[in-house]
Amino acid sequence: MHQITGDVMDIEVLFPTLVGISQADDATINAISAEVLQQRALMESLLSQSWGDNVLTSFNKEKNLFAHASLHRLRKFIEDNILEFVSKTRKDQAFQFDHTYTQSWINITKKFGFQERHNHERNVEGLPISGAYYFNTNQHDGDLAIFPTDMHYKLFGNYVIEPAIGKLVLFRSDVFHRVSANMTDNDRVSFSFNYLLTK
Question: pTM value?
Fold first, then answer.
């Protein structure tokens, strides 16, 4: 695995899979936290069980939480980093967001909660990007494993990412990934999303 380090974002190259990882600074974390807590009641009203009994999500009731709950600081942080991720990994950089496609939701993973291997590919024309932002974690409540897309992925293993408050992880939507079980008493809170970039 090779790492390209930039001023803000690290690009992990698990050939041929690219993963962008950014860490928000304290000011950004605090601004996002204040914004999310202000909308806590609204988001709690949208939660339901999904992906197993120990994961609560807003996805079943609201497909674009960032817009619905006015999470502007979180949305800006993610979108700025998606554009940086694309600019550092592609020669053709003249992309813009197709916001008619955008999906975003909150996941609350309780003890024993996990997510099986899956991807978010929906056969769209353009460059689909997915990822997760960690809002609350004790760093031991479930790692994110990224599966390389190479045909010989079993020879290379997975890239495992430890959660941290303010960490943002980005990858192409067709990349398979899974989340290991939360074996702690802490509720891990994360925001997931699907974006589409078009010419």
Answer: 0.91
